[in-house]
Design goal:
Layout lengths: L13 H9 L3 H16 L7 H6 L11 H9 L3 H10 L3 H8 L13 H28 L4 H8 L3 H24 L3 H16 L6 H4 L6 H9 L5
Helix pairs in contact: 1-9, 4-6, 9-10
């Protein structure tokens, strides 16, 4: 048939539309899409950590100090530990890394190339969760200096992570919106200003007032003023 004379139109899928409007790279958008699909089946809403993890950039995460990471992981509460389990963080992997024994564990049927890919996947998850834990502390109003010291991150690098995550949160929100996952988009929309300010939900309304910064907002909340 002569297709040149047929009336036809090309329509983007919701995912393709989301990739364009979110400004995510296609491969990165697919990775985010898969994360969001898994999260929709079991999103942990009893803590901010899960949505913060999803708003933490997939790429360019720095290597943690693995011994420090393991110590912080051991101190996590039940809700935060449940998020770690849900996103694929493994205590066994952290122990191996802290002992300098890299590589996947319990996988003997993989080729060398498959083992390397699996190792990179696990490293990516754990690096991302490490960054998410630092951001989780910031939105809980832990002073940046204390977070930087606890995680062994330079203050400038921590501030850069916070700024980058806020931008990334907006991109993921746009992807969710174009996918018509409006409940997920609402979660990222509510998180975005908290990442920007580094403040809890109860003090956020005061930070919207010109001239009121997080420390002053917290003092006003503790004095009983919330709006």
């Amino acid at each position: 048939k002569d297709f040149a004379h047929m009336d036809a139109s090309i329509v983007a899928t919701p995912l393709g539309d989301g990739v364009v409007y979110s400004a995510l790279k296609p491969a990165e958008a697919l990775s985010v899409f898969e994360d969001l699909q898994r999260a929709r089946k079991g999103m942990r809403l009893d803590t901010d950590l899960h949505v913060i993890f999803l708003a933490t950039p997939v790429r360019d995460a720095a290597d943690p100090t693995w011994e420090r990471f393991l110590a912080i992981y051991e101190r996590l509460g039940p809700r935060e530990r449940a998020v770690a389990d849900a996103v694929g963080v493994s205590r066994q992997f952290l122990v191996r890394q802290s002992l300098g024994r890299g590589g996947p564990f319990g996988v003997r049927t993989m080729s060398a190339e498959e083992l390397q890919l699996e190792r990179e996947r696990l490293l990516g998850i754990h690096r991302r969760f490490w960054a998410a834990l630092a951001l989780y502390e910031l939105v809980a109003e832990v002073p940046p200096a204390r977070v930087a010291a606890a995680y062994g991150i330079a203050r400038g690098a921590l501030q850069a992570l916070q700024t980058l995550s806020a931008t990334y949160c907006r991109m993921v929100q746009q992807l969710c919106h174009r996918l018509r996952w409006h409940e997920m988009a609402a979660l990222f929309e509510s998180l975005l200003p908290r990442l920007n300010f580094g403040i809890s939900a109860e003090a956020l309304p005061l930070c919207r007032v010109p001239g009121i910064y997080p420390a002053r907002a917290r003092a006003l909340v503790e004095s009983g003023l919330t709006t």
